[in-house]
Write a structure and sequence with these properties.
Rossmann fold; 32 strands; 6-stranded mixed sheet; 6-stranded parallel sheet; EC 2.6.1.-; 34% helix; alpha/beta; 24% strand; PyrdxlP-dep_Trfase_major; 677 residues; 4 domains; 21 helices; elongated; Aminotransferase_I/II_large; single chain; Aspartate Aminotransferase, domain 1
């Protein structure tokens, strides 16, 4: 515009921004031409409100760029799909509509009538355009879903006898698998648990169902049988479906390593650490992989239950969303918005979310689900009527507060809020302290201890909270380098060493195991600056170096001191050397603590056996080993071994209890109607 004196460019904001009521646009030309045209205009050609809206729209360059990208992408797909119909010849072009010549016995007008009657789709017949005849028509490039409906309708008319269905092949996706998505008004509102509950209900009803979360940000991860890493929540959801965990259920996992960066794991394998802006730029690339992964998973099951992340109302994240409404749109999922009423403000949050949703997002939203209610649900009827009047969306159910459900918690919000601070038992018991490292990971390793009646587990963040426990556990860490510095700053490092001298049992798991050693080196800058070397607590005679490659493996074996079976998984960059030399060439290294079925070994203990650690996540899941561990603490305290039946760590009863509540409190008839199964 304005590059030549004789060029005038006209732009309709009405079409670009979908605001036909404003009847607004602009003209761009040379200053001389603009002045001449202005002199011919009426004094009030545009009202003040329209002018203000126009200025705002023109300034939204991000929206314009994203619109161009989406239209171009959808145009290419639509051209490809229409070109597969022999009777249609597409005229080359670059506009946001397609001019098409119909090579058929019927005319464009007759085709338009059939489309309108059979599919309620209108096309523009171009018989009255200069130079065109009765065989030409024009179609707009619209959303992917609408384009698919157009292609299917054209195939039904122009390719009679061929099965086209209501869903057109797009990429590797060849069918629409029934699906539903649980969104949340925020983090830790119960989405993960409710997905697990609905999955178990569907399984009980004979549906082959699988869970899916496009992107998960969590420090609680798990290693699959084939060595892939995925979010712990999707592992629990897979168990609800009685499926072996599959990285396709969680194709992107983000493990925060600092306030501004995370390790990015795609299809179960780490691809590197990224700062926030780097990952935002990478998202469009990984989105294609997410879609392909979903298609592959959906093709294997009758139904998919998806989980969103955070909130779809976070307007600062919408432009690069790959896990909430964009994923719901791609998967053709109806969505339920889950809110935690225990926090307060749930109904205002429901209405607020609808207000910030785009029209296409509101179309996907089927309704709401109230979670964690304490009381009589009949008291909420008026509130539900109010919400439905304001939004046009119903409430699908009220899930009560579930005490001691017994399922692993994925979100660190619950952990930081004190979820793992159990009440002190009234009878004989041992006290175990969990050090709440700033970058704590896989804190679910400790959940089985919460089930034991003679264990008092509490979390500690300061020296004055430490007390004189019977045991201290240093958990996994996503940033051992930073957490070692934190331990020194808080004085917890010296306090823990002091407890060890007094005979307290000190245990380290994964990152905590590394912290117990003499040094931790980071030559590649995995967790800090390249070349970093920090001193550990020095309670175990071992050294660790953070390697570029990451160990991801499942393990089964024996805990040698007790002879008890253990199982779990390893997730670590650290390579720990427990071997030492006395200067004469003789190896005086300690014996391994664990041996595995494949001949590998892991872990180390000091000479007393009271300070020990290993890389094995899930070591306390073993009922026999866990009871042995607790009994050693009891004996050191002067208590007899526990004589009763210890806890049995089994998620199956908890999943069945959850399913019973979901089945009773959700409108399952409405859910099945949404799923279409």
């Amino acid at each position: 515009a304005g590059c030549r004196e004789n060029i005038i460019t006209l732009c309709s904001l009405t079409k670009l921004f979908a605001v036909p009521g404003l009847r607004l646009g602009f003209l761009a030309a040379s200053e001389e031409l603009c002045n001449a045209i202005t002199g011919q205009l009426a004094p009030w050609s545009v009202n003040a409100l329209a002018q203000a809206a126009g200025k705002a729209m023109i300034g939204d360059t991000d929206y314009i760029e994203r619109t161009q990208e989406i239209v171009q992408q959808n145009r290419e797909i639509l051209c490809r799909d229409l070109a597969a119909i022999p009777a249609l010849q597409i005229v080359p072009g670059a506009a946001d509509f397609l001019l098409i010549r119909l090579e058929s016995k019927i005319t464009a007008a007759e085709l338009a009538d059939q489309l309108l009657q059979q599919a309620r789709i209108a096309i523009r017949v171009c018989a009255n355009y200069e130079g065109l005849d009765e065989q030409y028509f024009r179609v707009a490039v619209r959303s992917e879903e609408e384009n698919n409906l157009l292609v299917a309708a054209l195939k039904d008319i122009l390719l009679p006898g061929q099965e086209t269905g209501s869903f057109v092949e797009c990429g590797s996706r060849i069918k629409k698998t029934p699906s539903m998505m649980f969104l949340g008004t925020g983090s830790d509102v119960g989405k993960s648990v409710l997905v697990a509950g609905l999955c178990r209900v569907l399984l009980q009803d004979g549906v082959r169902v699988a869970p899916f979360k496009a992107q998960n940000m969590s420090l609680n991860s798990y290693v699959t049988r084939d060595g892939g890493e995925m979010g712990r929540a999707q592992v629990v959801q897979a168990q609800a479906c009685r499926l072996d965990p599959d990285v396709r259920m969680n194709p992107v996992l983000l493990k925060p390593s600092s306030d501004v960066g995370s390790q990015v794991i795609v299809h179960g394998k780490p691809i590197g650490n990224m700062r926030v802006l780097d990952y935002v730029r990478y998202k469009e690339q990984v989105w294609q992989e997410v879609c392909q992964t979903y298609d592959a998973l959906a093709a294997d099951y009758d139904c998919i239950i998806l989980e969103g992340a955070g909130s779809p109302g976070e307007v600062n994240l919408k432009s690069h969303d790959i896990v909430n409404m964009r994923m719901a749109q791609y998967s053709h999922s109806s969505a339920l918005l889950v809110g935690d009423i225990d926090r307060g403000g749930v109904y205002a949050s429901f209405i607020g979310h609808v207000e910030v949703m785009a029209p296409w997002e509101r179309k996907l939203l089927a309704g709401f689900l109230v979670n964690r209610f304490r009381g009589d649900a009949s008291l909420l009827v008026d509130a539900h009527s109010f919400v439905e009047q304001r939004t046009g969306k119903p409430v699908f159910g009220v899930i009560p507060w579930l005490n001691n459900l017994g399922l692993p918690q994925e979100d660190s919000v619950s952990f930081k809020a004190g979820l793992y601070d159990s009440a002190e038992p009234a009878g004989e018991h041992v006290e175990i302290v969990l050090i709440d490292l700033p970058h704590i990971s896989n804190f679910t390793d400790l959940e089985p201890l919460l089930e034991e009646k003679d264990v008092w587990l509490r979390t500690v963040r300061r020296v004055d909270e430490l007390g004189t426990p019977d045991g201290v556990i240093l958990p996994g860490s996503k940033n051992v380098v930073a957490d070692l510095e934190w331990l020194a700053q808080t004085g917890l490092d010296k306090a823990i060493c002091g407890l060890a001298e007094q005979g307290c049992q000190i245990t380290g798991i994964c990152g905590g195991f590394q912290i117990l050693g003499k040094t931790v080196a980071d030559p590649h800058g995995i967790e800090g600056e390249p070349g970093t070397l920090l001193h550990g607590l020095g309670l175990l005679d071992l050294t660790t170096e953070l390697a570029a490659d990451k160990t991801l493996t499942r393990r089964e074996g024996l805990h040698l001191p007790s002879g008890q079976p253990v199982h779990g998984y390893e997730i670590h960059h650290g390579q720990t050397d427990r071997r030492k030399n006395d200067g004469t060439g003789n190896d005086t290294g300690s014996e391994p603590l664990l041996t595995f079925a494949d001949g590998a070994s892991c872990g180390s203990a000091d000479r007393t056996g009271r300070v020990w650690g290993s890389y094995l996540h899930g070591i306390f899941d073993s009922d026999p080993f866990r009871r042995w561990f607790i009994n050693t603490l009891r004996e050191a305290k002067g208590l007899p071994p526990f004589s009763g039946q210890g806890a049995q760590y089994d998620l199956e009863p908890a999943l069945d209890r959850l399913a019973a509540v979901v089945r009773q409190e959700m409108d399952m008839d409405a859910v099945y109607r949404l799923l279409g199964i």
